[in-house]
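hey so u asked for the seq, here:
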Amino acid sequence: MAKLRIQRCAMKASKIEPKKGNDNIFEAVINPESYSHSFGLKYTGTMGRGDNAIGKLGPIPKYAMADPEKVSFSITVDGTGVVPDKKKQTVAQQIEKLRKIVYDYDGQEHEPTAVKIMWGKGLKSFFGRLTSMSMDYTLFHPNGEALRAKIKMDFIEARTEAQEALEAKRRSPDLTHIVQVREGDTLPVLCDRIYKDANTYLAVAAYNALDTVSELVPDTLLRFPPLETLKKSEEARYGG
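ran it, structure tokens below
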């Protein structure tokens, strides 16, 4: 069975690069019993024009962004000799190596390093950063030396500058979008999707020289300019 591995990485502008060498790799002797992998979305709740009408229960949530993914699991480190371990490391040695990889401040990176977590087909290559780590010591030698410990770790998704920029670009209202109208589309809905403001529909209709805003013809191509361009266009139409 594949062993869970945690590998120290270097953060580059365009990619996260795993570091080579045994000092940069921690391999669990005992695999986790389970792990959790969670996803989340953020929504804004700002009241917009018309949202304070009588009878409204509250603002309608608007999609804002995707939260970083999160992974959590616990591993057991053993120093009794009962579990076969070619390296024959003590519990303290295993914890020290793990801590150096996932927790300690890196002078070159100027922050704790990102890591690549690999475990079979489920966690093929999750790149993350440690957010919390706790040790629960459960077995001791008569001299007080820890012989077994359970380590709980929580990680948050690590992203490069390039990945962040690409995600921001996809969401940006400051780019021109060309949209092909589909059956059932309305201008306010499209404006809300692109600008997060349905009230820009009249300005978009004028920008595209539409004769009507009540009904859009399927397969029509509409231009949604950068928000700043749209505002200037409106100012020019109404004389400032």
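The two ends are 70 Å apart (CA to CA). The mean pLDDT is 85.
lmk if thats what u needed
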